[in-house]
């Protein structure tokens, strides 16, 4: 070719001058390696970035060795020797160098062999830092997500059975490290995690850095097969050692999501999605642990996402499918109907009736509990107002979620509702599930105070299922404590528990509050619990939750009989 002839007419100095000019317009490092005289000529910025001692170096192979990541050296040497011997004319390799700060840098080096006017064999080419194209990461020296996808795609297509495991590793609370200690500290942690991973997995297992604080390990080679459990535990141990060596100056942990089977028919998108799910499962379970991908858990998760979509759609459609049911609350002595608890029901076009214990957590997590909570409040207030025509001091209990307390203007909503409906505040009882928050959370304490000022009553729901601290009862002045059915069941079978219930009821009375016993289903349960002297009873024995029309028909009269009439 004509251009080749021209190059071959030039001396090395002439070629170098041209390359110096071209270098100015290039991000890559342009180099000449004189394979005959063993001289390596590199641009200044390359000598500065990597630990070369000059731009014109003799003993090129030796010089190159000083910047190459040790375990990549052999492969590189073989390739250069093939260029020297004339066995190949093209050099094209992706491997690692080490910069002046000791960081690992992925590079791609491409070159062509030509002859100079002096008759020397020259390898002329360029070195690109892959990090600059976001294919490798200069903080950790690992390759990045695009490269993982390429590699995964190839293995999944050609040899999915060779995958021992894929592990997605995430640093717990990484954002906090960056925010509290700065991004340099964050970089250091990333570097330490990558070092720990590389010290645990065999040299030829592929390790990548994904977005931000996540890493991916793809093992297609370990022999004997490594157990991902062991790999994760070894990484954890390594990190714990590092943290200890640095005197706990920076404490951090890692979680992992593992895929160990069923790779057939999947593509890299699937792997990214499923491994993320597994990692999130580990984080949801409390972090600093690993979770193995499980198909059933994943389909449950997809179902939840779909339910959330359906709920959102129904809410946008004027609360289609949602209804408020009411369950009677009766006086423990006279069995007179004194109120009802409003309970949410959802009849989905797609899923049919889905119970509250499924939908409430989904709505809490997505914030949808806020519009739904308003819907229940308004429905319950209107209904209560209507029923007061029959029983003037009828009151309605409405359940609240902590999400409503924290993320909406509850006091404002409640005010607006009772004003517009014209309901007296004393007729509304807001139920909040018992928890440790009640004692410690400022917003909850404020809410209680505000409600008290407005004469709205509060009930602590499900007492006996969790926190059960009597100390705060007096402080918060809840009007009512609701004892959960599980508590009642325990007391029925065990005298010791029964005595505790009696004491609790006494104590609640002594601070001027009242007690509802929930979940009374049978006559014997009623008799036993009545002896403990609660104030009110709620349970299937007096009536299951029903819709507004049925409640009117079945229960809306002064005194209820003990057997459910449904
Ligand atoms: P909860 O507030 O403790 O409501 C009482 C639950 O016990 C109701 O379940 C009720 O049907 C059930 N129950 C009543 N009597 C008996 C009985 O004799 N035996 C048995 N086994 N169960 C009885 P439901 O309606 O399924 O509601 C479950 C939970 O969902 C409620 O527990 C409450 O925490 C929550 N929830 C329901 N509606 C709402 C709502 O509008 N907003 C919020 N935030 N939570 C709600
Ligand atoms: Mg309740
Ligand atoms: Mg309850």
Question: In terms of topology, how is this protein built?
Answer:
Layout: H1 2-8, H2 12-23, E1 29-34, E2 39-41, H3 44-49, E3 56-58, H4 60-67, H5 73-85, E4 90-98, E5 104-115, E6 121-129, E7 143-144, H6 145-158, E8 165-171, H7 174-181, H8 183-200, E9 206-209, E10 214-219, H9 228-245, E11 254-259, H10 268-284, E12 290-292, H11 295-316, E13 322-331, E14 337-348, E15 352-354, H12 356-366, H13 369-387, E16 395-400, H14 402-407, H15 410-421, E17 428-433, H16 437-440, H17 442-453, E18 457-463, H18 471-476, E19 480-483, H19 485-493, H20 495-510, E20 514-518, H21 523-530, E21 536-538, H22 548-554
Parallel strand pairs: 7-9, 11-12, 14-16, 16-17, 17-18, 18-19, 19-20, 20-21
Antiparallel strand pairs: 1-2, 1-6, 2-3, 4-5, 5-6, 8-10, 8-11, 9-10, 13-14, 13-21, 14-15
Residues 327, 343-344, 355-357, 360, 373, 376, 399-401, 431, 461-462, 485, 518-521, 538-540, 545 line the site of ligand C2E.
Helix content: 40-55%
State the major sheet. Answer: 8 strands, mixed, barrel
Order of strands side by side in the largest beta sheet? Answer: 13-14-16-17-18-19-20-21
Tell me the CATH superfamily of the largest domain. Answer: EAL domain
Show unreliable segments.
Answer: 1-5
Total domain count: 3
How large is the share of residues in beta strands? Answer: 15-25%
Class of secondary structure makeup:
alpha/beta
- Give the N-terminus to C-terminus distance in angstroms: 97 Å
Radius of gyration: 36 Å
Rounded mean pLDDT score: 91
List how many beta strands DSSP finds. Answer: 21
How many helix segments?
22
């Amino acid at each position: 070719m004509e251009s080749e002839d021209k190059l071959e007419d030039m001396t090395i100095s002439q070629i170098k001058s041209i390359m110096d000019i071209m270098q100015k317009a290039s991000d890559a490092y342009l180099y000449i390696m004189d394979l005959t005289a063993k001289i390596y000529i590199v641009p200044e910025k390359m000598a500065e970035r990597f630990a070369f001692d000059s731009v014109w170096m003799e003993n090129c192979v030796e010089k190159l060795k000083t910047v190459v990541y040790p375990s990549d050296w052999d492969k590189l040497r073989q390739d250069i020797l093939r260029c020297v011997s004339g066995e190949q004319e093209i050099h094209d390799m992706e491997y690692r160098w080490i910069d002046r700060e000791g960081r690992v840098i992925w590079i791609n080096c491409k070159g062509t062999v030509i002859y100079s006017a002096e008759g020397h064999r020259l390898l002329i080419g360029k070195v690109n830092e892959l990090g600059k194209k976001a294919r490798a990461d200069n903080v950790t020296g690992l390759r990045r997500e695009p490269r993982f996808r390429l590699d995964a795609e190839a293995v999944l297509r050609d040899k999915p059975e060779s995958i021992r495991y894929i592990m997605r590793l995430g640093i717990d609370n990484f954002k906090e490290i960056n925010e509290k200690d700065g991004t340099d500290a964050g970089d250091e942690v990333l570097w330490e995690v990558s070092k720990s991973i590389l010290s645990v997995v065999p040299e030829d297992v592929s390790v990548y850095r994904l977005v931000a604080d996540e890493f991916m390990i793809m093992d297609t080679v370990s022999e004997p097969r490594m157990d991902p459990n062991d790999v994760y535990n070894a990484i954890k141990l390594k990190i714990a050692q590092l943290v200890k060596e640095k005197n706990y100056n920076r404490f951090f942990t890692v979680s992992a999501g593992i895929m160990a089977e069923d790779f057939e028919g999947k593509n890299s998108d699937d792997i990214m999605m499923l491994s993320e799910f597994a990692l999130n499962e580990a984080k949801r379970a409390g972090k600093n642990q690993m979770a193995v991908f499980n198909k059933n858990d994943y389909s449950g998760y997809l179902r939840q996402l779909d339910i959330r979509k359906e709920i959102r759609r129904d809410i946008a459609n004027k609360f289609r499918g949602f209804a408020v049911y009411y369950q009677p609350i009766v006086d423990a002595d006279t069995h007179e109907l004194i109120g009802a608890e409003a309970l949410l029901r959802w009849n989905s076009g797609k899923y049919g009736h889905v119970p509250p214990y499924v939908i409430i957590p989904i709505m809490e997590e997505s914030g949808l509990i806020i519009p739904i909570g308003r819907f229940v409040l308004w429905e319950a207030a209107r209904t209560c107002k209507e029923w007061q025509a029959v029983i003037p001091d009828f009151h309605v209990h409405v359940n609240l979620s902590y999400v409503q307390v924290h993320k909406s203007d509850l006091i404002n909503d409640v005010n607006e509702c009772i004003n517009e409906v014209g309901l007296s505040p004393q007729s509304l009882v807001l139920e909040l599930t018992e928890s440790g928050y009640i004692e410690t959370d400022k917003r909850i304490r404020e809410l209680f105070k505000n409600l008290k000022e407005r004469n709205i009553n509060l009930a602590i729901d499900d007492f006996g299922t969790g926190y059960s601290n009597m100390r705060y009862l007096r402080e918060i002045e809840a009007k009512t404590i609701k004892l959960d059915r599980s508590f009642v069941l325990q007391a029925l079978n065990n005298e010791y528990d029964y005595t505790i219930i009696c004491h609790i009821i006494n104590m609640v009375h002594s601070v001027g509050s009242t007690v509802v016993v929930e979940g009374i289903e049978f006559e014997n349960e009623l008799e036993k619990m009545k002896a403990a002297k609660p104030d009110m009873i709620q349970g299937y024995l007096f009536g299951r939750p029903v819709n507004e029309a049925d409640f009117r028909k079945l229960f809306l009269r002064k005194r209820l009989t003990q057997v459910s009439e449904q």
